[in-house]
Amino acid sequence: MRFPRGFSDELRGQADIVRVVSDYVSLKKRGANYLACCPFHQEKTPSFNVNPARQIFRCFGCNRGGDVFTFVMEIEGCSFPEAVKTIAEKCGVPLPAMEDSRGMEERDQRRAELQKLNQWAAEFFESNLSETPEGRRALDYLAERGVSDETRQAFRLGYAPNSWDALSNHLLKCGASRMQIERSGLVTLKESGLGFYDRFRGRLMFPICDVQGRVVAFV
Questions:
Q1: pTM over 0.85
Q2: What Cα–Cα distance (Å) separates residue 40 from each residue in 4, 35, 89, 109, 138?
Q3: How many domains does the chain have?
Q4: Is the pLDDT of residue 102 over 70?
Q5: Which 3 state secondary structure label does DSSP give 73?
């Protein structure tokens, strides 16, 4: 069962992310945005940012981010349909009747899986850029090109280590299955058809995000 096509997009347009997040976090207005200590990790200095204009959140400490649905799913530990129901109730939006569409549910589940793998990959690339000797050489290159730390962090630039399986091993440790990794596009299948290797190796990584701040691809 699922909600009718388009309902979640309509709800996203009606929901005020600041209002929803405020039910869980004490936000303080800072310029055009709102700040708070992140609810997803321990910190003393606020790095959790809510952008009401773009209707997204982003923590510059743990790099979690996304739209109002992502926030509720993360903080409640619930599924996407459950997040839709929660947000609709908070915003006073009546829920439509559910539709039976197993094929569309499977597609939505795979999309959610891909978004999660992309997020894990982006975090992995970001940490490698700033925390490894190999990545620090890439940092030096960015500095030579005039890319500031603020710009690098804003665009979530990262580094893919020069390894055949560093990313895929990281994704496995995060809880991804081998089948999910194969479907993600982050790896390339071996010519023998047995196993795979990382698609991106030894290069700077630029994540491509949608309007909700979700990582959808890499270049």
A1: no
A2: 31, 14, 23, 23, 29
A3: 2
A4: no
A5: helix
Tell me, yes or no, whether 123 and 56 share the same domain.
Answer: no
Let me know: does 189 contact 182? Beta carbons within 8 Å: yes
Q: Is residue 101 part of a domain?
A: no
Asked if pLDDT for residue 101 goes beyond 60, the answer is no
Q: Which domain holds residue 20?
A: 7-91
Which of these three, 64, 91, 118, is where a domain ends?
A: 91
121/119 Cα distance (integer angstroms) = 5
- Token readout for 140 is 């030096």
Answer yes or no: is pLDDT of 100 > 60: no
Q: What's the half-sphere exposure (Cβ side, CA atoms, 13 Å) at 151?
A: 7
Distances (CA, A) of 90 to 4, 20, 71, 176, 212: 19, 7, 14, 32, 20
The reply to whether 145 and 114 lie within a common domain is yes
The CATH code of the domain that includes 25 is 3.90.580.10
Predicted confidence band at 80 (pLDDT cuts at 50, 70, 90)? confident
Strands 187-189 and 48-51: unpaired
174 CB contacts (<8 Å, ≥6 apart)? 120
Sequence-distant (≥ 6) Cβ neighbours of residue 127 within 8 angstroms: 158
Judge whether 2 lies within some domain. Answer: no
* CATH number of the domain bearing residue 164: 3.90.980.10
